[in-house]
Give the backbone structure.
Amino acid sequence: MDMREKAVIMNEDDIRRALVRISHEIIERNKGVDNLVIVGVARRGDHLAHRIAKNIQEIENVKIPVGTIDITLYRDDVNLFDQKPIVSKTDIPFDINGKQVILVDDVLHKGRSARAALDGLMDFGRPACIQFAVLIDRGHRELPIAADYVGKNIPTSRKEWIDVALKEQDGVDRVSIVEEARE
């Protein structure tokens, strides 16, 4: 399926400002950063998690542990595709038992990736709580999942997609709405 960019909705500065705001909201909601850890969902959420941790360190002068979770094998649609799943590395080098975990992803859509990430986190222990931060919430939920921290709400049609590009992986920071190219 060929996709074409319909509109750029966030540039580098917009993304930076959204992540700084989310970082401040995390500190405020948790009354500081004691007992806080951050886990990003592999393939963009992990990059955002590191950026949020860096922001918090600059604000609070405290280094927050950051990990990465790959949700591939926790997804409920992993067997619906003919291709073999590409599994990344899960790296949570700290104990999450009793911790306040901030789970970070790039886009919240149907809620299935978030559910898979929650299932994956539970294999690592029992956190005191899990809060969810996303750069983009595009709606169309299939599961009763909501983000605690949202960079930007972008209502989309079911024929549109959100494309998040980050410097660490894509060489540029940009969020776009894309749609199927018409011929």
